[in-house]
Design goal:
Helices cover 45% and strands 14% of the residues. It is α/β, with parallel strands linked by helices. It folds into 5 domains: 121 residues, 3-Layer(aba) Sandwich (Rossmann fold); 193 residues, 3-Layer(aba) Sandwich (Rossmann fold); 57 residues, no CATH class; 50 residues, no CATH class; 264 residues, Rhodopsin 7-helix transmembrane proteins (Rhopdopsin 7-helix transmembrane proteins, Up-down Bundle). The radius of gyration is 51 Å and the shape is rod-shaped. The relative contact order is 0.07. Belongs to the G-protein coupled receptor 3 family. It is found in: Cell membrane.
Length: 752
């Protein structure tokens, strides 16, 4: 039937004779219409043979072989992009798709589903609704209702691609759902409607349940208001003999009346006066403002008219002198080239032009459907899709003016497969489910997530740590052993107290330097040992406080050198005791080594080795201030980095070797005569020294932060105290409390 009617239009005088022009009047120049893509394709297949252009209002997927078809709609890809961007702006990622059960609907689903996957949106379901054209289709639709209702329950947001036939099927489905107590299924949804729906909804509005689509968002061909259109409607007279012949039929249908002589088939109708007011009609039946449909028709008519004018002007300009140009002798196929390049601004100031594919070079408006209890509704323009905007910014809208379906209480509807994963959790995909469906797992120890629906938790920067709920990173507190905290104060007081005690002991030995007990144990070594112990007690003060370059440079090396001197002094005492009896034998060759020379040699050589190792240490990899952000979870340890742990343990090991040699020698000579009984006390002091430093190593390695420094300070003070107490306290006891024992005669009888 479509092909036959097209031939009637193309032929003249109502005689459908293909390929013949039977007159010079009423030749077809172009066709404006239709709304349906299938009909448009059938029409253009015939008209294309004669190069007659057609201006349609529908989307055509493939126009490769349709050069004479023009569309008063933008490129469909723009609408797909707009839908995706709109969903992303509202963070709707669990969306259903409903389309017609035909080639166009299948194409729509395939393209949109693919774009959803590429942009992180999951397709909750896809449903194809049959077109109702017969009673059989209605029966099939009733059987289809149950399946459709189950699908609608799966998502809050649904994209609908439909023309008027699909609309009828969908409304029938909603009515059946309502009868089956499933009204909530259909009502409490956000429908994303395509431009085709908005364009065709003007003609068929009576009797439809507008509440179903309350709060919906639709794409509409970009349009503007024309003030002249309002004036045109106000002065429209259906009884004007020169007016549009279709006006009378529309008037009779709109006002349920009949003009005299009309053949409406209804005898009881009132007579149309022609003075009825269009503005009195309900908005669901007729809108006084310029709709998208009216705006598109207006632009289509102007495009054809301007193309004809351009063609006529060009032919008139180039005609030969004296030759009379008859308009009806034009080659009508030439209109195509003029229409293809047409570009003008309409009375609203909007540019009207076609792209290279014959599609309208324009964007889309985003419309919010607001319905009222009396089934009337209003379309509110809330945004725009500009295809020439930067990527991901094509869609702009004012969210504050959008009115959602009443069930949502003006709260932005959610469209997710499951609840969002809150900060402090990460998403874990569910096996066998779309990627939008996931479980929420708490972040592991040491990691956080500061946003919703994060795929992975992440580690905080080195100077921060996760809070208890692991959704924010808190700054770590700097930590070091300071003089302002109880532990630092206690260790400092302990060090100073022992220093005073060592000074007191040194004073006693200096005051009683001429007594036998002081003279019997090598005064020079005794003074050197006491001074070394005094400095050892002061060394911990370098470990307390904020680490600086100088203190880091000095703390370990100073302690190691001073402690080596102290241990070497004790070793010199022990060697002196061991050799003392050897030189008493007649003819001994080592007599000349016993005395100050021996002590100086032992102390100098042992100390020189330690000084050499410390020099190598400082020259190769000296200690430096450092920040330890890994040892403690919530604190940054301000410490001195040893530079090289090898050298650190090497100098400690050297002191351990000297202490071991000292212990062995002292143990061997512990039962020498009474005047040389200092070896016994040296044995105990080295036993304390060894015990402290053997326990120091595992404790030091297992301790973190400022307590690591405290462990080393404790080891220094404990080992030094052991030497001070074991070696000097017995002598101080005799000097101060038992002076009667401080004589040569007693020295030979007792052990000190």
């Amino acid at each position: 039937m479509t092909y036959q009617n097209t031939l009637f239009l193309q032929s003249t005088w109502n005689r459908p004779i293909p390929n013949f022009s039977c007159g010079i009047q009423k030749n077809l120049v172009a066709i404006i219409g239709t709304l349906d893509s299938e009909t448009s394709l059938q029409v253009t297949n015939i008209l294309g043979l004669y190069r007659i252009p057609q201006v349609a209002y529908c989307f055509i997927n493939d126009k490769t072989h349709l050069p004479f078809l023009y569309q008063m709609v933008p490129k469909e890809a723009y609408q797909f992009t707009g839908i995706v961007q709109l969903l992303l702006r509202f963070q709707w990622i669990w969306v259903g798709i409903v389309a017609m059960d035909d080639d166009k609907g299948i194409h729509f689903m395939q393209v949109l589903t693919s774009m959803f996957s590429q942009n992180g949106i999951c397709t909750a379901f896809t449903e194809r609704i049959p077109t109702m054209v017969s009673l059989f289709d209605i029966i099939y639709l009733m059987e289809y209702t149950g399946s459709m209702s189950l699908s609608l329950n799966m998502a809050n947001v649904i994209v609908l691609s439909a023309h008027i036939q699909t609309a009828f099927a969908l409304f029938g489905l909603m009515h059946l759902a309502k009868l089956g107590n499933r009204a909530v299924t259909a009502m409490n949804k956000v429908w994303i409607l395509t431009a085709e729906w908005d364009f065709t909804s003007n003609t068929y509005q009576e009797g439809l349940d507008a509440q179903v689509f309350s709060g919906s968002l639709s794409f509409a061909i970009q349009s503007s208001e024309l003030s002249e259109f309002q004036n045109f409607l106000h002065v429209l007279n259906p009884q004007d003999p020169k007016g549009d012949g279709f006006i009378r039929a529309f008037w009779e249908q709109a006002f349920s009346c009949s003009f005299p002589g009309s053949n409406t088939g209804e005898e009881d109708r009132e007579i149309c006066s022609g003075t009825e007011k269009l503005e009195d009609l309900p908005g669901t039946f007729f809108e006084m403002r310029m709709t998208v449909q009216s705006y598109s028709i207006y632009n289509a008519v102007h495009a054809i008219a301007r193309a004809l004018n351009a063609m006529y002007s060009l032919r008139h300009k180039h005609r030969a002198d004296g030759e009379r140009l008859h308009p009806l002798k034009w080659q009508l196929w030439q209109l195509h080239s003029f229409l293809k390049t047409i570009s003008f601004n309409n009375s609203a100031g909007d540019e009207v032009a076609f792209n290279q594919n014959g599609e309208l070079a324009a964007g889309f408006d985003i419309i919010n459907w607001v319905t009222f209890p009396n089934q009337s509704f209003s379309r509110v323009k809330v945004g725009r899709m500009n295809p020439w905007a930067p990527s991901s910014k094509e869609v702009t809208f004012n969210e504050k003016v959008i009115l959602w379906q009443s069930a949502f209480n003006q709260v932005l509807p959610l469209a997710v497969c499951n609840d969002n994963c809150q900060p402090g959790h990460s998403r874990k995909m569910k096996e066998g489910k779309p990627f939008c469906c996931y479980d929420c797992d708490p972040c592991p120890e040491g990691k956080v997530s500061d946003q919703k629906d994060m795929d992975d938790c992440f580690k905080c920067p080195e100077d921060q740590y996760p809070n208890k709920n692991r959704y924010i990173c808190l700054p770590k507190v700097p930590q070091f052993l300071s003089y302002e905290e109880p532990l630092g104060i206690a260790l400092a007081l302990w060090a100073l107290s022992l220093s005073l005690i060592s000074v007191f002991v040194l004073g006693i030995f200096i005051r009683y330097r001429d007594t036998p007990i002081v003279r019997a144990n090598n005064q020079d070594l005794t003074y050197s040992l006491l001074i070394s112990l005094l400095l050892c007690f002061l060394c911990p003060l370098l470990f307390i406080g904020h680490p600086h370059t100088v203190t880091c440079y000095l703390r370990q090396t100073t302690f190691c050198i001073i402690f080596s001197i102290a241990v070497s002094c004790v070793l010199a005492k022990t060697i002196t005791v061991a050799l003392a009896f050897t030189i008493t034998k007649p003819g001994s060759k080592i007599r000349k080594w016993v005395g100050k020379r021996l002590a100086i040699s032992v102390v100098s050589s042992c100390s020189f080795i330690q000084v050499g190792m410390c020099t190598v240490w400082l020259s190769m990899a000296p200690p430096f201030p450092d920040l330890d952000t890994h040892s403690l979870a919530q604190e940054i340890v301000l410490e001195c980095n040893e530079g090289t742990t090898i050298m650190f343990y090497l100098v400690l090991g050297y002191m351990g070797v000297m202490a071991m040699v000292n212990f062995v020698l002292a143990f061997l000579v512990r039962k020498l005569p009474d005047s040389f009984n200092e070896a016994k006390f040296i044995t105990f002091s080295m036993l304390v020294f060894g015990s402290v430093w053997v326990s120091f190593i595992p404790t030091y390695l297992s301790t973190k932060g400022k307590y690591k420094v405290a462990v080393e300070i404790f080891s220094i003070l404990a080992s030094s105290t052991g030497m001070l107490v074991c070696i000097f306290f017995p002598k101080c006891h005799i000097i101060i409390l038992r002076p009667e024992l401080n004589h040569k005669e007693q020295l030979r009888k007792r052990e000190f």
